[in-house]
Amino acid sequence: MTTDLFSPIQLGRYHLPNRIIMAPLTRNRAGAGNVPQALNVLYYEQRASAGLIISEATQISPHGVGYPATPGIHSAEQIAGWKQVTQAVHAKGGRIFLQLWHTGRISHPSLLPNGEQPVSASAIAAEGMASTYEGEQPFVAPRALETTEIPTIIEMYRQGAANALEAGFDGVEVHNANGYLLDQFLRDGVNQRTDAYGGSIANRARLPLAVLEAVIEVWGADRVGIRLSPSSTFNSMSDSDPEQHFGYFVEQLNRYNLAYLHLLEPSESDLRHGGKPVPTSYFRPLYHGNLMVNWDYDFAQGQAVIANGEADLVSYGKLFISNPDLPERFRRNAPLTPFDPATFYGGGAVGYTDYPSLPDSSVPDSSLQDSSLQEQQISS
Ligand SMILES: Cc1cc2nc3c(=O)[nH]c(=O)nc-3n(C[C@H](O)[C@H](O)[C@H](O)COP(=O)(O)O)c2cc1C
């Protein structure tokens, strides 16, 4: 039998009913104090038929905030808010990991405690504009973290991971992609340090791996994933040799037996911005565990990449925004609702919880394995 998106899979500690994963999606709709609220509970609950939900990026500390109205996992109120989310997803038979986030230089003093300067590997400002409560403002030059401050950063991740456990998540994904703090350390376009955390790739990988190990101590490796974007130029990122550097890093990950490695494919925008594209297929032979791929996949492309063995799972972002029952739509070959980028970031229920599911698609995924029931569903 061919393996496809509907084939169950063992992902670390969990048995997933399908390989259609909800990608992490920042939606800027947290309540006051960056606390998840009832609207967010409904949004995640609606998407519980994903093989796994990966939450929107969630700051581990007030010092790691980079955008307005993004949720945190550092206060008692935030933990309580997330508990409502995890309970609702579990009640629908789903599973949800939290994406652990520190934005580093992709921030602004107005978003940080006491108007402090953002931190990074080196004092190099990102190009472009920060999103703030007062609108877009130019990125400021960050402050390079002192070597003596690194243990505090690792501790922030450990505490964020422990808080996610308390909030009832099923696991965590370390956000090491898209130009945020850990990526700022990993890639030599930003990391110009001369201490043990800069220079060689082994040194640049030191903080990301130390964070991963701290998080694993809390969760066990079989409930931890990591996300990487080797080719991405987003947030003015670059690397002199992503093939060699990320190749090294991915091989290091083999030591841990993680739940999964989540890789972003090169995008057209990366090519336009001078990125050096490395397809995820390059990393397939280097990594020995479950590989999740992402970027602009449609149903047919997702089916193909699983069937030909280039990946074990596919995560979908934008399609999950506008199709809360995406696995069922794929299964029925039903039309997909188009997404509206104007409502991606911020606002209320419009473009968030008002995208419809197909009639009857609240039926748990596993019961649809029975083909007679499936036919009944399709005809009703
Ligand atoms: C609205 C929006 C918010 C996003 N937020 C996050 C995020 O919080 N963390 C992250 O790692 N990637 C984030 N991404 C990237 C997506 O996870 C994904 O990589 C991207 O949308 C490409 O996949 P897709 O073509 O299936 O949408 C975001 C993308 C979009 C469109």
TrEMBL record:
Any Pfam family the entry gives: Oxidored_FMN
Any GO CC annotation of this UniProt entry: cytosol
Keyword flag Membrane: no
CDD domains associated with the record: OYE_like_FMN
Keyword Oxidoreductase found: yes
Record's keyword terms, sorted: Oxidoreductase
Protein name: Alkene reductase
Family: Belongs to the NADH:flavin oxidoreductase/NADH oxidase family.
Region (Disordered): 356-380
InterPro entries: Aldolase_TIM (IPR013785), OxRdtase_FMN_N (IPR001155), Oye-like (IPR045247)
Residue span, NADH:flavin oxidoreductase/NADH oxidase N-terminal domain: 4-335
Names of required cofactors: FMN
Record organism: Pegethrix bostrychoides GSE-TBD4-15B
A single GO molecular function term of this UniProt record: FMN binding
